[in-house]
Every structure is written in C-alpha cells, then in structure tokens.
Amino acid sequence: MSEIRLSSEKRLRLFAGRGFPELADEVAAELGIPLTPTSAYDFANGEIFVRFEESVRGCDAFVIQSHTNPVNKQIMEQLIMVDALKRASAKRITVVAPFYGYARQDKKSRGREPITARLMADLFKTAGADRLMCVDLHTSQIQGFFDGPVDHLFALPMLANYVGSKVDRSRLTIVSPDSGRVRVAERWSDLLGGCPIAFIHKTRDPRIPNESTTGRVVGDVQGQTCVVIDDMIDTAGTITKAVEALFDAGAKDVIIAATHAVLSGPAIERLKSSRASEVVITNTLPISEDQKFDGLTVLSIAPLLARAIREVFEDGSVTSLFDGHS
Ligand code: R5P
Description:
This protein is an alpha/beta fold. It has helices spanning 21-31, 71-87, 116-127, 156-164, 182-191, 237-248, 267-273, 302-313, 320-323; strands spanning 12-16, 38-42, 48-52, 60-64, 92-97, 131-135, 150-153, 172-176, 197-204, 212-218, 225-233, 253-261, 278-282, 296-299. It has nine helices and 14 strands. Helix 7 links the parallel strand 12 (253-261) and strand 13. Helix 1 packs across helix 8. The structure holds ribose-5-phosphate.
C-alpha cells in the first residue's frame, strides 16, 4: 500500500545577500551548514534580481544582510530576498540585519521629518518577514516598530570582556559620548565591576548631518583610563571629539569601543590621527584591508549571530545568551 508521510522536521536554511558575504560565510561555518545557493545580479538600470537555486519550501529561513554602503541597495536586496522566500513557501522568515540601516531617524526631531527606523520595520513586514534579528539597535525602542518578535543582540559583553582584560580596572572610567547613551555606559560599568562613568555634553544642529559640537566632560576623568563607547562610528567626528575632550579634561589614556564601523568619509583618517590608544569595533559591517591600521581591533560578531540563530531555530532562549539563564 502506498503511503504519504508528512515530515514534521524543521529545516534551518541560511541565505546571504551580497552586502557582506564574508560575515555570512563565518556564520554558516559556526552553524556547520552551507549557505543556500542564491543567484543575484543587477539589471542595467540597477534593479536587483534574486533566485534561490534549491527548494526552500517549508524551511526556517534566516536572511543575512548587513546594511553597508550602498545602504539602499543592500536593504532593497534583502527585501527582495524575503519576498522571494515568501512566494516560494518558506515556513518562517527571519531578517538578520547585524547593522540595521536608517535606525538613527527613530523619532521626529522637528516637524515634517520621517521616522525611517519605523519605515524599515514596515517594509520588512510587508515583504513577508516574520521576525527580525539585529545587533545593538541605535535605540532599544526600535524593537517595538516591528510587528513581530525582534531578537535584539548585544555586542557589549564581548567588547567589555575584551577591554576589561587589557586595562587596570581600578583606574577605569566608562564614557558615553552623549547623554543618550548613559544607560549603556552603566551596563558596561556593571560588567566591569562598577567602575565610574562620565559623559560628554554633546550638542548637534539637526539641520547638518554628521556634525556635532563636543562640549564639556561631565564627571571626573583626571588620571583615568577612559573607554568611550558608542553604537556606531560613521564619520568618527563624535567619537574623536570626545577623545580630545577627555584628554583635555586630564584623562591618562582613552580607548574607543563601538559596535558598528560605518566608517564613512574622513573616519579612518580621524581615527588614525586621534590620540586614542586603541579602537575596538565588531564586524557587523565589512572593514576593508586598506581601512585597517595599527591600534584597530576587530572582534567577530559571527559566533553570537550563529548562537542566536540556533536558539531561535531550536525554540530555545536568546535571552540566555546574555544573562546565562534559560
Ligand atoms: C548618534 O546618535 C550616534 O550614536 C553616533 O554617535 C553618531 O551617529 C556617530 O556619527 P559620526 O561618527 O559621524 O559622528
């Protein structure tokens, strides 16, 4: 007698956009699975074509794309991949955006402005994404912009453990480059044994992108080793001005630690010529060979992404990756 068997086994599949394939390869290696073969190319007018070369029916799909420069293209490609997966009957689709583009516009600072962080979430939802996975969102409330589960991963423990292993913790101060990141500085302090925190009083003219005026240091940094932290380094204006302000206020040494190395325009030159002794970043975004310099340390985010993907796939706990409890 012939029979029909239904397979209830879940199948994990990993898909990579063209934004940063090396990171996707690293994640795949950590997970011990291959990337699903995917064809992608641009039409003459810049439109993107994507096709998966194997059946994806019923799979648990994770689509990795870092929103690197050119950011609009990478986002559009990821949206198109999600659309293709939805139309090919993937069972569940998770957008993995280690760096979530357009996150800085998360509220209206003035009238007649967009909220692009919300627009991005809506676009992914409309394309067919069931969930999002991101690292160090610009602000935590962006999680609420997406109508579905968001796995918000933190690079902080990895960065803090690295920095903590290199410095004298009794002379350490964690510095937020603006008042908005003081809570993150507190989490660094908690992880590093309760060291003091300080912040920079930063003002910004909302009409001029990537331009900030660094004011005074709030807190005592005299003779201290300061770790100035940020979610991203774009043109490096914010962070290098903070470094100068800290030395002017008597700091003995300054280390820069940030998750997302956007590194636009003058960033590399600014970092190289800053007096910071070390710049520690992660590879949520690609760093080319010619961007590397002495004193730059790149920590890989791939093991964390792989562990989180495995937890989601196995219906485990992503929270346990950060608090040690299931
Ligand atoms: C601002 O709110 C962000 O957290 C970063 O401080 C900022 O985007 C960094 O930009 P830049 O490196 O161009 O100063």
